[in-house]
Every structure is written in C-alpha cells, then in structure tokens.
Amino acid sequence: MRFTQDSTSASHLIRAYAAGELSINHDTYRETVLVSATAVLRLPEIRNLNDLAALDLKRVLALDPELVLLGTGPQQIFPAASFRGQFLTAGIGFEVMDTGAACRTFNVLVAEQRRVAALLMV
Predict the structure, then answer these.
(1) Which residues of the chain have pLDDT under 50?
(2) Cα distances (angstroms) measured from residue 23 to each of 16, 56, 76, 119
(3) CA dihedral 82, 87, 89, 93 (to 10 degrees)
(4) Which pLDDT score is estimated for 10?
(5) Per-residue model confidence (pLDDT) at position 4
(6) How far, in Å, CA of 45 to CA of 90, rounded?
(7) Is CATH 3.30.70.100 the right assignment for the domain spanning 14-121?
(8) Strand positions, DSSP E, 25-100
(9) For the stretch 98-121, what's the b/e string if a residue is b when 16 or more beta carbons lie within 10 angstroms of its beta carbon?
(10) What are the percentages of helix, strand and coil residues in the chain, rounded to 5?
(11) What is the pLDDT of residue 9?
(12) Are 12 and 36 in contact (CB under 8 A)?
C-alpha cells in the first residue's frame, strides 16, 4: 500500500552518462540537451563552449528554473563570464561542472522537487 504520492514518477531522470551519450528515462541522446523535470530539448547546435553564445536564453528561461547546471563534457570548463552573468542577472543560480557530476546533481535536485534545468554537453 502506498502512503505517499510518488511525485517523481513523471519526471525526467538521467539513467546513464557515457562519453558522447546520455540516457534520459528510456531515450538515448548523442547531442547536447537541455533537460528539466518536465522537458528534454535537443540542442545539436551546441557542441562546445564557444557555441553557447548562440543559445537563445529564452529557451532556458521558459523552463522557469531556480538553478541551471552546465555540464561541460568530461572536464569542468568555465564559459565566458558574460554567459554566466545572464543567469545571475535574471536571479537564477548557475553552476558549472563536468557532465557526469551535472547528471548526478540534476537527479538529486529533481528528487527534491527543485526547479532545476541542466544544459548537458556530451
């Protein structure tokens, strides 16, 4: 008998991460994705940090995050200060880490029902 509602059953969770590949729920992605508890958006145009300048910030803001995680692949690499500053100006937390750490952090925060979005480069 269930005593509490499972609020994470409809959430997107990252099941696995390997070089060049992410598994979210039952789907596999081989390009950069923007993921929240309720949405997964493919961003094939974002292949490295230089491509972040072309990212339409409205796509991220539409997810209404309180925190954005940036997974930069196998190594933590910080983007330009101007990119980070856009989130801080909007009052949104912003953290940079390698993609594996970003995946783990995302899952924990989703389980805590936090409004988190993750921009994950594979």
Answers:
(1) 1-8
(2) 5, 24, 20, 14
(3) -130
(4) 58
(5) 40
(6) 24
(7) no
(8) 27-29, 33-36, 40-42, 67-72, 93-97
(9) bbbbbbebbbebbeeeeebbbbbb
(10) 25, 30, 45
(11) 56
(12) yes
